[in-house]
Amino acid sequence: MELYWNLDDIVAPFEKACVTIGNFDGVHLGHQQLFAEVVKRASTNRGCSVVVTFDPHPLRVLRPDGILLISTIAQKIEQIDKAGIDNLVIIPFDRSFASTTAEQFVQDILLDTIGMTELVVGYDYAFGKGRSGDTEFLKAQGRQKNFPVTVVEAFYRNDLLVSSTQIRKLVAEGRMLDARALLGRPYQIRGVVQVGKKRGGSEIGYPTANLQVNEEDLVPRIGVYAVQVICEGVCYGGVLNIGYNPTFGDQKLVAETHIFDFSKDIYGKPIKLNLLKFLRDEKKFTGVPDLAEQIGRDAEEAKKVLSANKAELLASCTADLGILG
Hints:
It is a single chain. By secondary structure, this protein is an alpha/beta fold. It contains eleven helices and 14 strands. It has helices spanning 29-44, 58-62, 73-82, 95-98, 102-113, 135-145, 164-172, 176-183, 199-204, 288-308, 310-318, and strands at 2-4, 17-21, 48-55, 87-92, 116-122, 149-152, 156-157, 160-161, 187-192, 209-212, 223-231, 234-243, 254-259, 270-280. The strands form three sheets. The chain has a six-stranded parallel β-sheet with strand order 1-4-3-2-5-6, sandwiched between helices. Strands 9-14-11-12-13-10 form a six-stranded antiparallel β-sheet. A two-stranded antiparallel ribbon has the order 7-8. Strand 11 (223-231) and strand 12 form a beta hairpin. Helix 7 (164-172) packs antiparallel against helix 8 (176-183). It is elongated, with a radius of gyration of 22 Å. The two termini are 17 Å apart. 36% of the residues are buried.
């Protein structure tokens, strides 16, 4: 997949470009329906498939406190690449760009710069100043400017509408199995292992890999999870606590993962955590012995979760090997 971080990077319009536009936060199964349609139509017309998205997410600019993102831009790029798209165009979004009208966007960007000959959009997509560029507007533009427009209808899984909003709600509630069903893969957090207070190994007996958590991003329900850990090209099982360490009176939100059968020094190394199942809420213990005993029970429960879904989980974990970032 060719990646373009700015419209100025496109030196000439793409050949027979079948295009889809969106924010694609989470790149869930609904988005993947769009990508599959774009790839199919581009192949039929012997053209190329193009995804147009924005960074940062427009709502992060227009309403900074109005959205918690499911995925980072790096995760979005990885998932779009996996969908078999030929070209990904990431338009820098700021308040100046927000003033672009829907008519300008279609003519100047989609037609003149990208070379769009066909458009595929989701049923609820709208863009341009005042969100005037909805599906009816796009169909009218298509008739006027001679490009076909395909609207992909809503997609449901397990009687749930597959949408970024729905997935954010599920993650916040700790419903990881349902979130996974809509994403088509486990919900994932990632980061670089930080030096913590080093209580896990020396005091508690369960050493942990610690990640900083940004409370301005989408934070899963506070508590304990069974997880897969992807580190240096290898997949491990583990048990994760996202919380504030109330037993020790800490105030900072952290993600601490005890990785099973693991003893490497990975400070400063990137890891990915696939959150598989919520096990329990975080709680304050009377002391270290009670905490250690509970972590032991949590670890056993997490191992049961991993064992019960071994083949399926291996596939989801393998999909991430070799693309740490």
